[in-house]
Amino acid sequence: MGGTTLDGEQGRDRNLESGGGRRGGASRAGRVPAWLPLGVLLAGIAALVLRLDREARARGVARIDVTRYRLHSPDRWTLPVWNSRLERVLLAVDTIDAEDRGAIDELAQRIGALSFVAEVGEPQVRWPDGLDLPLRLRQPIACVRVGGAYLPVADDGMVLAGYSHAPHRAFGGYLPVILPESQGEGDGALPVPGDLLDRPSEQRALAVARSMWAFLDKADRERIGRILIDARSPRAWDGLPGGVVIDLEGARRIHFGRSPLADAPGELPLERKWAHVHEALIRWEAGEDFAAVDVRWDQADWLSAPGEGR
Question: Model confidence over 63-82: pLDDT tens digits?
Fold first, then answer.
């Protein structure tokens, strides 16, 4: 399984290697057969390894010090707080017996419970005191506003660790902001890392964010800047179904219509909607300002008067 690998280690430089070949043909009379010294040598190495193994266990060094770890991560995006959360788990465990499969599995479960870990692979003990633990980390597609701060959110709606005072930057732009259905004012607590954003408006907003990554390239994500996807209203400004809006900086708004989850007949395809957004960004960059753009139609409707379409 691809992804991140966690190594726990202690004294990993002790390696024993053997080599050598075996020649064909019969030995000459009066000489020791060619295979005999090699066989004795290999048997000696095997005995030495076995003896070292016994001695290591007798000295109690066949334990894995998980506090001495390296995180090999080819994943594209991580936060320093993720390392801190992982280290907290490892420090609580400290060491485990290399032969205690139950303890190793428990460690894997504890790491798998971290919000940013999507999957934990099969742990592999590396004799005598190392451990490889493959991890697949979640990657964010949005961030959720919680009071005056922001938390990254993965594709499956999992809220990830990593509070920030501004929307997070990732993959060539800002992560789009979504609003939780609960605002923490009598209708439930604000989301925290490990929560799942599974309420209807949250899922609608995540679907729009997901489509943004599919249809806007890096240059457009840089152009669009910091945005907020609000999918709480079931109806648009004109009373028609589909009230998803995307608010840009400078009090500009894009009327997006229905969420991709709606799959409603007659709804403009997502590719066309985001093509309208691209055109709006290019024209905006060229100096043509707007208050709102309605991308629900074959021809985008530009609303230039302040407050129009609000």
Answer: 888 888 777 766 568 888 99
In terms of domains, do 160 and 270 share one?
yes
Name all contacts of 75-78 with Cβ < 8 Å and 24+ positions apart: 75/3, 75/4, 75/137, 75/139, 76/139, 76/171, 77/139, 77/140, 77/170, 77/171, 78/116, 78/137
> Whole domain around residue 107: which residue ranges?
4-12+62-137
The amino acid that residue 254 corresponds to is I
Neighbours of 95 (CB within 10 A): 16
> Quick one: which of 149, 217, 205 has its CA closest to 181?
205
pLDDT in tens, 97-108: 888 889 989 999
Q: What is residue 191's DSSP assignment? A: P
**Is residue 239 included in any domain, yes or no?**
yes
Instruction: Look up residue 217 and give its amino acid.
Output: D
Residues 159, 157, 133: CA angle, nearest 5 degrees: 70
Bridge partners of residue 164, in order along the sequence:
150
Of 88, 112, 137, which residue constitutes the final position of a domain?
137
| Global pTM value | 0.76
Q: Which pLDDT tens digit goes with each residue over 233-242?
A: 999 988 999 9
